[in-house]
Amino acid sequence: MEGTSADGVTRITFWHGINPPENREIFNELLAQFNENNPNIEVQGLYVGQPDEQLPKIIASVVGNQPPDVLWYVPQLTGKLVDLGAIKPLTEWFDGSTLKEEIEPAMLSTMRLGNEIWSVPFATNNTAMFYRPSLFEEAGITELPSTWDEFVTVAGQLTKGNEQHGVLLSSGKGEFTVFVWLPFIYGADGFIVENDQPNLINEGTQKALSLGAELVNSNYAILSAPDRGYELDDFISGRVAMQITGPWTLAQLKQSGIDYGVFPLPVVDKPATVLGGESLFVFKTNPEREEASLRFLEYILGKEFQQQWALKTGYLPINRLVKDSAEYQQFVAENPVLEVFLEQMDNAYTRPILSDYPTISENLGRAIESTLLGQKSAEDALGESQKRINLSVGN
User: Do you find a cis peptide bond into 20, omega within 30 degrees of 0?
Assistant: First the structure.
């Protein structure tokens, strides 16, 4: 592997799946600022598809000894990358950095596995319910739903045959689908890991998937294209009145010019959301490239990047200096929908950081998909997925 080139510039690659395109443009502008201010380092940002499209490329790059220098991906991949011996532990670097005191404490759980820190957060978020106020007004709905039962009722009131449906539900086997459905699982006192072992078979998980099946069977909901639950076309066009997504969509929604609002995810047993956002991993390459990668991480974690990223995209900052700044407080005042996401952070769960997590996620995704498509009951779908997990992880 090459280090610093003859011209004295250390070139590193950064693989990411930043989406929607509006956010990629914003990131490219901020990346250009870093490269301009660090003439001895050149970071090449490469969009390599959405996370589930990235995974085979990531594994192949490690096996072929041609990994990126820095990877943007959900922290749940940590265990797999550690098992492969592919990434550099960041504990010593992070403990010696002044940035340590600036990072939101809630993010630490996403950074650790065992006694080491293996990644740092790029930004964070959670999901809530976006809705179209104009469509609620047309349907005569004056109060936002706060419980599952109210949510189903309102979804029915917003449905007009096949022309308009109450809600779009994320479907598919991918991680985004799992991310969107986990708050309903946790909110129903469900779980996917018990005593450090994968376990999808419990009442809460069944209740969450059955809620989705009820909405689809009643024609109150339509399903996203497989693993495309983050796309907003139906919401923007008014074909659906509600969609579960996150603050990263604000730049796109502002450009669309539509009316929109946000309310917390409906509750059945307890409020719950899931900590979202991607982390940055540094791959083992050589001292020069690893050092350049750490400089890039310092930029991403620092106030300058975090503030611009938050103000331009709607992502929640992971740097407390940004969160407490007058500029950010003014931004929240101008975009009050953000208050929902900030308040929900108090009820945010972290997805398990286990080496088996990709297997758990894929099989939970399969169960969600087959339940929503009406192929199996929630109980049967989860039972089959648990059997596949047991065979895969050797239980």
Answer: yes
> What pLDDT does 70 receive?
98
Amino acid identity, position 171? S
Residue among 315, 280, 275 at smallest CA distance from 301: 280
Q: Residue 287's CB: how many other CB atoms inside 10 A?
A: 9
Show the beta-strand stretches assigned E in the chain.
Answer: 10-16, 41-47, 70-73, 112-113, 116-117, 120-121, 128-131, 165-169, 193-194, 197-198, 221-223, 240-245, 261-263, 273-274, 279-282, 348-349
- Tens-place pLDDT, residues 160-175: 999 999 999 999 999 9
Q: Which fold has domain 128-274+354-393?
A: D-Maltodextrin-Binding Protein; domain 2 (3.40.190)
Which residues lie below 8 Å from residue 355, measured CB to CB, with a gap of 6+?
A: 79, 80, 82, 83
| Residue 4: band (very low, low, confident or very high) from pLDDT cuts 50, 70, 90 | low
- pLDDT band of residue 106 (cuts 50, 70, 90) is confident
CATH class in words for 10-125+276-349? alpha beta
What's the rounded Cα separation, in Å, for the pair 93 and 76?
21
- Domain-wise residue ranges, the chain: 10-125+276-349, 128-274+354-393
10-125+276-349 and 128-274+354-393 have identical folds? yes
DSSP label at 50?
S
Residue 331 contacts residue 310 (beta carbons within 8 Å): yes
Contacts of 275 (CB under 8 A, 6+ apart): 106, 107, 109, 110, 124, 126, 345, 348, 349, 350, 351
Please give the span between the terminal C-alpha atoms of the chain, in angstroms, as a whole number.
39
DSSP state of 131: E
Q: Determine which helix (DSSP H) or strand (DSSP E) holds 195, and give its type and residue range.
A: none
Longest dimension (CA), the chain: 69
Taking the C-alpha atoms of 109, 113, 115 and 118 in order, what is their torsion angle to the nearest 10 degrees?
A: -90
3-state SS, residue 171: coil
Report d(CA 185, CA 191) in Å as an integer. Answer: 7
Q: What are the residues facing 193 on neighbouring strands?
A: 198
Closest CA to 108 of 91, 93, 125, 96: 91
